[in-house]
């Protein structure tokens, strides 16, 4: 059942963001898009008793009688970058803005046996085997993942996994997990619809269609009913993958206290350093800046922490760096264009830094 403390607080947060947006008197078309997105997010809280809404949490300690304070942020439209996250009060350097749990995550294939299959925590003594294929860091993680993991274990993924491995693909594994979550009833098929999709080329779509065929065949050969996989269409697969492509975070766990990492930028793009990838709802609304005022970090699992890198004024947009901020301008522009489909026009890039 949905956490009764989080549900009213997140609904208030969405309504507050929408009302602030309406007051800005943006164009009607953009107003409709944001309104639709906020209604969709609210529907995640109300339409399914079985769905565990855990996209973000606060660190405020609350009793059952008290509603936790919302994070000091709102979602609204920016002048040039679509949706963004804005401070609703002054935020001090080093302050924890909010935390977030992934909507969906998956370990990197090369560390599959050394991290928790649920939360991506590193495991020093894995309990998995070739027969078992995966490991869990605790009985709690094993219990939380068992419903969708049992669905996954019903299918033969050899062809799908081989295709992804041969082509160096990582995001299709996240779509596979989300499909298993939907089939098991722990997630909705429209869980990530609120996120912005990537622009896809005909070549990308053609490859995604191949991936979908392998995914579909794997499920069709199981005893899963047609009704349970009725959502699983080619359009659904491509739509989810298009959103994961530009909204997935590469999870690199900190070796020490995160207070020591405030001066560093977002994680590097080296896949070998990652324990996996995850998609979040609220953190995906943060826009990019090569000189960010906020930072997303992971301490020991896929639970994300958003912290301020410097003092932030009320009303100021909070931005994170999507790539390694230490790279030179040309390298940053190339990575952002290739990986995220935009050209950065932040002050640092405009000045050639």
Automatic annotation (TrEMBL):
Residue spans crossing the bilayer: none
Stored PROSITE patterns: SET (PS50280)
Matches recorded under Gene3D superfamilies: 1.10.220.160, 6.10.140.2220, SET domain
One GO cellular component term noted in the UniProt record for this chain: nucleus
Record-annotated SET domain positions: 71-323
Name this protein carries in UniProt: Histone-lysine N-methyltransferase ATXR4
């Amino acid at each position: 059942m949905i956490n009764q403390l989080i549900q009213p607080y997140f609904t208030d947060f969405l309504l507050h963001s929408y009302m602030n947006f309406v007051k800005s008197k943006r164009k009607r078309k953009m107003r409709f898009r944001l309104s639709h997105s906020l209604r969709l997010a609210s529907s995640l809280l109300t339409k399914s008793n079985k769905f565990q809404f855990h996209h973000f949490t606060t660190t405020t300690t609350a009793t059952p009688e008290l509603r936790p304070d919302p994070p000091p942020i709102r979602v609204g439209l920016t002048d040039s970058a679509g949706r963004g996250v804005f401070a609703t009060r002054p935020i001090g350097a080093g302050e924890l803005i909010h935390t977030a749990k992934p909507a969906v995550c998956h370990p990197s294939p090369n560390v599959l046996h050394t991290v928790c299959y649920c939360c991506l925590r590193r495991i020093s003594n894995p309990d998995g085997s070739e027969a078992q294929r995966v490991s869990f860091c605790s009985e709690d993680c094993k219990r939380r993942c068992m419903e969708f993991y049992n669905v996954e274990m019903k299918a033969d993924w050899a062809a799908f996994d081989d295709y992804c491995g041969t082509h160096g693909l990582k995001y299709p594994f996240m779509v596979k997990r989300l499909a298993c979550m939907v089939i098991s009833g722990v997630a909705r098929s429209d869980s990530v619809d609120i996120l912005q999709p990537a622009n896809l080329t005909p070549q990308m779509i053609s490859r995604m269609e191949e991936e979908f065929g392998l995914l579909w065949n794997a499920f069709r050969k199981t005893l899963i009913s047609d009704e349970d996989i009725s959502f699983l269409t080619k359009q659904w697969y491509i739509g989810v993958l298009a959103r994961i492509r530009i909204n997935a975070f590469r999870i690199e766990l900190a070796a020490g206290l995160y207070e020591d990492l405030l001066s560093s930028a977002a994680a590097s793009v080296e896949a070998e350093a990652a324990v996996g990838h995850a998609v979040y709802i609220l953190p995906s609304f943060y826009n990019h800046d090569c000189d960010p005022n906020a930072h997303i970090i992971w301490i020991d699992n896929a639970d994300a922490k958003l912290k301020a890198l410097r003092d932030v004024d009320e009303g100021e947009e909070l931005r994170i760096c999507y790539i390694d901020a230490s790279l030179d301008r040309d390298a940053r522009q190339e990575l952002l264009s290739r990986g995220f489909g935009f050209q950065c026009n932040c002050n640092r890039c405009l000045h050639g830094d």
